[in-house]
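Researcher: Can you fold this with fe (ii) ion in place?
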Amino acid sequence: MSEALGDALLGTGPSPDAIPVDPATDPLADDDLQLALYWCYELHYRGLEGVDDRWEWAPALLALRARLEDVFERGLVDAVGPTGGAPDPEEVDRALRELGAEDAGGRSLSRHLEREATLGQMREFLAHRSAYQLKEADPHSWALPRLYGEPKAALVEIQADEYGGGRAERIHAELFAASMRALGLDATYGAYVPRLPAPTLATVNLMSFLGLHRRLRGALVGHLALFETTSPVPNRRYAQGLRRLGFDDEAATAFFVEHVEADAVHEAIACVDLAAGLARQQPALAQDIVWGARALGGLGARGSAPLLGAWDAGESSWRAPRGRPVSRLARPLGARGRGRGGGPPPPAPPRARPQRHRATTSRATSISRPSWSRSSTGPRTSSGPSR
Ligand SMILES: [Fe+2]
Ligand SMILES: [Fe+2]
């Protein structure tokens, strides 16, 4: 499927809607299915190198994505269970914290990395995480236009931190890239994706799946709330593991140290103001919020297993990179305009595009308030930075 998709997107194979989707026995462990779904979703992020941007909304591509998602969603429900009864909105915060305190069972990946991992294993771990961390926070941002009031304000507050609070070098994805480079890894967006196994890709596909479907906004919020709740402890261990291996400089550890500190605050905002706030606003979403958190917990444990299993066997957790078409899609670089490959059928006729005003390009530094707020004739505003 992933190779046929690569051919289709590059214009060298049949249309995506002609690609058969194999109903995998365990969709969460199916490398091919997860990679194909990952590429479908990537069209909504930075795009794929050499692939026409118009594929993002091409019906043939969306039809394939829908069939892949049907299989994926069935696998999620099999692994996590269906949504349970609707909890009292006032109980959502407590339910999330209880989920966060649950012992996932099995060996702890973070403890292994803290105490025993070799440098090679630490590098593999970072490469696995790069599939999400280099676009950290992006899937949850899709919830923003779907929320209002208290939960929206809470999500914006969290995301502002994730995106560096106005400082590009503090964007969490940038901090992660710096850590990768400090360990001698390739921090290019998407560089390692073709070598990652299904359980790793499934953890990222889960976020994209929840983020791209408004019906799942409650689950997306619950996912983020548990993500923040369960972040500080393992990140402290990862930082300690890096120091044990001799990487105690800020470039290597800043990402992890940042999450020990920031997520201790984000946890409260995410559980109380965001998740419980949404449940109070829309009680019908309460069960989805809890399910999204359970999905994170379930897939997280499955995602750790291939690494520990391979390392126990003295092997690498990489899989062989996929063949030619996917290799050519290996580095989504944020395609600008039309790529080299064939576009979605039917070809759209060239048309005039509206004039785009590039209001920010000549600005030397970021601004903290709009220019009209300093004039006496423009709209009045009393708001400033929230923090
Ligand atoms: Fe973060
Ligand atoms: Fe966070």
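Model: Folded with fe (ii) ion in place. Residues 323-328, 332-339, 347-387 have pLDDT under 50 and may be disordered.
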